[in-house]
Amino acid sequence: MEFRNLGRSGLKVSEIAYGNWLTHGSQVEEDAARACVRAALDEGITTFDTADVYAGTRAEDVLGRALKGQRREGLEIFTKVYWPTGPGPNDRGLSRKHIFESIHGSLRRLGTDYVDLYQAHRFDYETPLEETLKAFDDLVRQGKVLYVGVSEWRAEEIERALKIADELGLDRIVSNQPQYSALWRVIEEEVVPLSEREGIGQIVWSPMAQGVLTGKYKPGQPLPEGSRATDDKGGADMIKRYLNDDLLTRVQQLRPIADDLGLSMAQLAVAWTLQNPNVSAAIIGASRPEQVSDNVKAAGVKLDADVLKRIDDVLGDSVVRDPAKTVSPSRRP
Questions:
Q1: pLDDT at site 21
Q2: Catalytic residue at 54?
């Protein structure tokens, strides 16, 4: 395993992070989830990402039990706050009330006294940004949170937060967690240049484009049984935009590139994201331990300029680049 700094902070994270968005407490049974976490640990992964909303808080419970007994100082545990975790109007968003109540629930479920990174899971247009940043800063001062980050924020939202933090002497954002893959590059035009200037690292999710870049979805063929595209708990909704024959045909044309490099399609996809120097870590998920063992082999892989150009030529105009595709709800869900 290779390690990188999280942005300009002193925190080291594993290049490959393990996430449990659509798996723990949802797609896979707990025994399988624990086996995947064990595989991640065995492969040298030290960074684990989750969120209070995943599987209705069950994902944090499962991860906490799976990591029980591990040396806490040897792990980096990340979680998030914003999406609804209860029925009330204050069970969501980035108000001081919800942030404080959510962190205590997350710490209890994860079985830890602190999280290494606490992330605002979306931008909250109904809460003054000063209120959100002060609440995060208070948690840092209390020792319950070590670093603060965001997820799926636009460049102008990150810039506003940095300005307020500097004016008020608050802890600065050190990371952003965006969707990023060879097919989804919406952060490259605005978020990445700002982040490079300000010392913010990207912890990218869906580096395999919900599994499309593994090549398992074939044009003109039925969807594989048990795949994310057949998951009725949220996975199918995310992947459907990719399931057209033109794009799937292009993805199959990446296979010779992966073969030439001695990589699996999944390894090529993850390695591609890690070529961006602003990326601190790529998050992988898994329903089977062997998937973890395959994906971690992307760590340390270097792709030269010719390979990157070949990938660009194959994918062509299938790549999504519009920064306006980064969207937070106009009102709390």
A1: 79
A2: yes
Task: Write the CB contacts of 249 (distance below 8 Å, at least 6 apart in sequence).
Answer: 219
pLDDT score for 26? 55
Phi, psi at 36, each rounded to 5°: -70, -40
User: How many residues belong to the chain?
Assistant: 333
Q: CB of 5 within 8 A of CB of 11?
A: yes
Catalytic residue, candidates 18, 54, 82, 217: 54
Cβ within 8 Å of residue 39, ≥6 positions away? 286, 289, 290, 292, 293
For the chain, list the domains and their CATH numbers: 3-325 (3.20.20.100)
Contact 50, 20 (CB under 8 A): yes
Reported as a single tens digit per residue, the pLDDT across 134-180 is: 999 999 999 999 999 999 999 999 999 999 999 999 999 999 999 99
How would DSSP label each residue in 197-244?
HHT-EEEEB-TTGGGGGGT-S-TTSPPPTTSGGG-TTTHHHHHGGG-S
pTM of the model: 0.92
- Residue 288 near residue 36 (C-beta atoms within 8 A): yes
Three-state DSSP state, 56: helix
**What's the rounded Cα separation, in Å, for the pair 234 and 236?**
6
| Residues 5/281, Cβ–Cβ less than 8 Å | no
